[in-house]
Write a structure and sequence with these properties.
With 252 residues, this protein is of the alpha/beta class. The protein is 41% helix and 15% strand. The protein is built from ten helices and eight strands. Bound molecules: 2-phosphoglycolic acid. The site of 2-phosphoglycolic acid has 12 residues, from β8. The site of 2-phosphoglycolic acid (PGA) has 12 residues, from β8.
């Protein structure tokens, strides 16, 4: 069975290195015992080196929350994929809706995704509509978002792609999307990928769901939503809730 992937997006939390270490240690303790789950934790950049030092590679991976698409140079405040790769980071969240809100565009997303592929790293490409109505315009929106975000990517790189479908209205909300709707959306996303890259590539691309996931709804989202993993925000910085979530979805 393909392993389920759980990605924790810590966002701009916690506020001290001590807390970050404590949280990471508690996740590691649970991750060590999991049989069918790959855990990726994405902390703020500043904690990455310290957390990497306490990690053993097979239990848990560390990802970042963004990159700049250039490798190095005069780009004040930015961090490149090359720098992260050098540290041992393999995954990077790209195009999160909170970054899109700050000015990220499909064009910059496409450059970032390509920069990661060139280094053999895995982008966790976030896509998702802001609104959803009966006319189905969100489907057209999503299709364009996928096409534009991957417009520089050739078939040979696509094996490293991870898609995180996060309807923007569900992020930070009380309630996640209904699992039946998640199922529909995952089929739609795969159909777009089939049209772009062919059947084999599309079915092997992991599609994750994100938005108001917690330890209570995670198993139902897997069973009815038919997705390959979860991108978890708030619950990933709650050590008890995240531990419960990891244990709940670890089915063999
Ligand atoms: P949430 O955030 O789980 O807190 O809704 C998800 C995300 O932003 O990736």
């Amino acid at each position: 069975m393909k392993k389920r992937m759980i990605v924790g997006n810590w966002k701009m939390n916690p506020i001290t290195l001590e807390e970050a270490k404590r949280l990471f240690k508690s996740i590691k303790r649970v991750a060590e015992k999991l049989k069918s789950v790959t855990v990726v934790v994405c902390p703020p950049y500043i904690y990455i080196p310290a957390l990497l030092n306490t990690r053993s590679e097979f239990q848990i991976s560390i990802g970042a929350q963004d990159i700049y698409f250039e490798g190095q140079g005069s780009f004040t405040g930015e961090v490149s994929a090359l720098m992260l790769k050098d540290l041992g980071v393999g995954y990077v969240i790209i195009g999160h809706s909170e970054r899109r809100e700050m000015g990220e565009t499909d064009e910059s997303v496409a450059k970032k995704v390509q920069a990661l592929f060139e280094l053999g790293m895995c982008p966790i490409l976030c896509i998702g509509e802001k609104i959803r109505d009966d006319s189905g315009s969100h489907l057209e929106f999503l299709k364009n978002q996928i096409k534009n975000s991957l417009n520089k990517v050739s078939k040979k790189h696509i094996g490293k792609l991870i898609i995180a479908y996060e309807p923007v209205w569900a992020i930070g909300a009380k309630k996640a999307m209904e699992p039946e709707n998640i199922y529909e959306m995952s089929i739609f996303i795969r159909k777009v990928l089939v049209d772009m890259y062919g059947y084999d590539e599309a079915v092997s691309t992991p599609v994750l769901y994100g938005g108001a996931v917690n330890f209570r709804n995670a198993t139902e989202i897997f069973s009815k939503g038919q997705i390959d993993g979860l991108l978890v925000g708030r619950e990933s910085v709650n050590s008890t809730g995240f531990a419960e979530l990891l244990k709940a979805v670890d089915v063999s």
